[in-house]
Amino acid sequence: MTANTNVPGSGDLSPLVRSDFLYRRRRMMDRAMTLAMVGAAIAAVIPLFLILFYLVKEGVPGLSLEFFTADPNRPGREGGGVHNAIVGSGIMVGLALLMGVPVAIGAGIFLSEYGQNRAGSVVRFIIEVMAGIPSITIGLFVYGLVVLRQGHFSGFAGALALAIILVPIIARITEEMLLLVPRSLREASYALGAPRWKTVLRVVLPTAMPGIVTGVMLGLSRIAGEAAPLLFTALGNQFYTTDISTPMDSLPRRIYYYATGPYDYWHEQAWAMSLVLVAIILVISLVVRTLFGSRVTVRQ
Amino acid sequence: MAVSTLGQPKRAKSLVNRFKPGDWVFTTLAGAAAAIVALVIVGLFWQLFAQSREAIGHAGIGFVTSTTWDPSHETFGVLAFVAGTVITSVFALVFATIIAVLVALFLVEIAPQRVARPVSYLVELLAAIPSVVYGLWGIFVMGVFIRDHFGPVVTSTLGWIPVFDGTPLITGLFSACIILTIMILPTVMAVSRDVIAAVPSSQREGILALGATRWEAIRIAVLPYARSGVMGAAILGLARAVGETLAVTLVIGNSVKLPENIFSPAYTMASVIANQFPEATGLHRSALLEVALLLLVITFFINVVARLLVWRVTKGQRAMVQE
Questions:
Q1: Which positions of chain A have pLDDT values less than 70?
Q2: Distance between alpha carbon A255 and the CA centroid of its chain, in Å?
Q3: Does any domain span residue A242?
Q4: Which of A123, A144, B57, B261 is the most buried (most CB within 10 A)?
Q5: With the CA atoms of B118, B120, B125 and B131 taken in that order, what torsion angle do they form, in degrees rounded to the nearest 10?
Q6: Residue A193: inside a domain
C-alpha cells in the first residue's frame, strides 16, 4: 500500500483501517471532489482571460487618434471614429448621476437613519428587488413616460433610464456605509446639542463619504456599459450632438449596432469600443477594490 | 437585525424628538427619496400594463398558449419565446450553479487566503463586463468555436438524440445557453461563497472530529446548512438570466419559431423585444409591451423568492453589499 503513505496523517491510523476497502473508497471520493473543486475554480476564471485576450487582440488595431476624435462616416465608407458615442455616453452617464445620486443617497439616509421599522423594511426590499429587474423593461418604462409624451427620442430619456438603474445600486451601498459609522460619533454630536439632521449631514455623511463615493463609482461603471435601456430612449445618432433633447449616441449602443452590421471595419471598431469600455470599468473596479477590499464589487 | 440599533441611540432620541423644523425638512426629504424609489416600481408595472392593454384585449389568453407570432397577420403568441427563455435560463442555472458551488467550496473550504482572494476577485470581474461585450465576444469568438469545433463533436457523438441533431451555427440556442452560464456564474458564486462562509465552523469541526474526510464534512455538515442560501443564490442567477437582453439578442439567432434542437435559432422574451420593438407599430408594439410586462412579472417574482431565501440564511447580517 504505497499510496497510503502519501496521505497526511495516515501513519497514525491502525493497519486495520488502512487496508479497509471502505476507507479507500471514501478517500478516493474526497480526492475526486477536491479535484472537481479545483477544476471548477480553474474553469471559472478561463472565460475572463479569454474575453480579455480577445478584447486586446481584436480591439487594439482599431484604436487610433481618428477613432477618438472623428464621428462615424456614413455606412459603408471606411474610417471615421466614435467620437459622438464617447461624448454621448459621457453626457448621459453624467446626467444620470446628477439625477440618480441625490435620490439614491436620500433613500440610503432614509434606510439607515429612519428605516429601522416596517416602512424601512418595505423600501429596503423594494430596492433589492428593483436591482434585479431587467434593464430593458426600465427602458420601455421611460419610453412610455417620456418618449411617447414628447413624441421623440432624446438623450434626456436615456439618462433618466440610466438614473433609474443607478438608484438601487447606490442606495444599498449608501445604507451599508452609513450603518458602519460608529454610534459614538453620533452620540458625540448629539451631546454637543446638534439636531439630528445636522448630525447626519455634518458628522455621519462626511464619515461615510469614501464609501458613498465608492458606491457612486460602482453605479457609474454599471450604467456606462448598459445598452438595453438606451435602445428605446436615447435611440442612437450618427452625428455629434450635445443637445439632450435630441437622440443621442452611446458607446454600448454603438457596439451593439456595429456588432450586428455587415462591415469588417465596424466589427473592428466594435472591438475597440469594447476594449475602451471594459478598460474604464476595470480601472474603476481596481481602484474601488484597493480602497475598499472585497466587500464591494462591480456588477453589470 | 443585529445592526438595527446602531443608527438610533435610544437616549439621544428623547432629546431629538422635540420638534425642530430642520429635522422635519430633512426627514421629509429622505422619506421623499425613498418614496420615489417605491413609486418607480409601481409606475413601471402601471406603465407597461397601460401600454399593453390593447394587446391583452386582442389576444387574450391565447397570448401565452400560442406559439404563432406573426405581426403581419396580427397573431401574437409568445410561447416560443417563453420556451427560449426557459431553455436558456434553466441550462444556465443548472451548469452555473454546479460550477459556482464547486468554486465557492474551493474558495471557502480548500484554498488558502492568498489563493482564494484573487480567484474570487477574478470570477467576480466577470460580472463587471457589459452585456454587449459578452455578445460581441459570443458571436466572433465563442460562436465561431461552437460552429467549427464544439458543435460538430456534439452532433457526431450525441446526434442520435433528436435534441442534439442539428446544424451548429455561430448563433443559436446553444450559444445563448453558454453565454448565459458564463454571465450568471459570478452572481451565483459570490452569494454561494458568502452563505457557505456563514456556516459556523463548529459544524465542520464536529464532523471532522468524528473522522470524516473533507468532502464528507462538506456533504454532511456544510451543504445542508447552506442549502437554502445556495438555492437563493441560484434563483438570483436565474433572475439575471431571464432578464438578460443584449448578449442573448446577439447570439441566439433570432427566430420566432419554436426551437427544434439545441442548435436552432430562437428568441427569448427579452431579445424579441430588443430586436423587434424599434420597427414595431400599433398592435405589434403593444404586444411587445405585453411581453415586457410578462417578463417583469416573472423576474419580479423570481427576485422576491430569491431575496427571501438569501435573507433567511444570512439572517439580516447583510453579508452582501450587492446581489
A1: 1-19, 292-300
A2: 18
A3: yes
A4: A123
A5: 160
A6: yes
With a CB-CB cutoff of 8 Å, which residues 289-308 of chain B face chain A?
289, 292, 295-296, 299-300, 302-304, 306-307
C-alpha cell of B9?
441611540
| Residue A199, domain CATH | 1.10.3720.10
Give φ, ψ of A185 to 5 degrees: -65, -45
Say whether residue B208 is in contact with chain A using an 8 A CB cutoff. no
pLDDT per residue as tens digits for the range A125-161: 889 888 889 999 999 999 999 999 999 999 999 999 9
> Cβ distance B36 to B280 under 8 Å?
no
Q: Given CB atoms, is B136 within the 8 Å cutoff of chain A?
A: yes
Query: What pLDDT does residue B203 have?
Result: 87
Classify residue A102: in a domain, yes or no. yes
User: Which one-letter DSSP state was computed for residue A71?
Assistant: P
- Structural fold of domain B81-269: MetI-like fold (1.10.3720)
Question: Rounded distance, CA B191 to CA B104, Å?
Answer: 9
- Domain span at residue A99 reads 84-253
Q: Quick check: B250 contacting A, CB < 8 Å?
A: yes
Q: What residue ranges do the domains of chain B occupy?
A: 81-269
Contact A259 B41 (CB under 8 A): no
CA distance B148 to chain A (A): 17
Q: Tell whether B184 lies on the interface with A, counting CB pairs under 8 A.
A: no
**Nearest-by-Cβ selection for A109 from B30, B40, B100:** B30
In this predicted model, what pLDDT tens digit does every residue of A181-203 receive, in sequence order? 998 999 999 999 888 889 999 99
Percent of chain B residues topping a pLDDT of 70: 91
CB contact under 8 A, B110 and A38: yes
Comparison of pLDDT for B85 and B13, the residue scoring more: B85
Q: pLDDT tens across B169-185, in order?
A: 889 999 999 999 999 99
pLDDT band at B17 (very low <50, low <70, confident <90, very high): low
Interface residue A135 vs chain B (CB under 8 A): yes
Closest CA to A156 of A167, A145, A166: A145
What is the number of structural domains in chain A? 1
B169 at interface of A, judged by CB pairs closer than 8 A: no
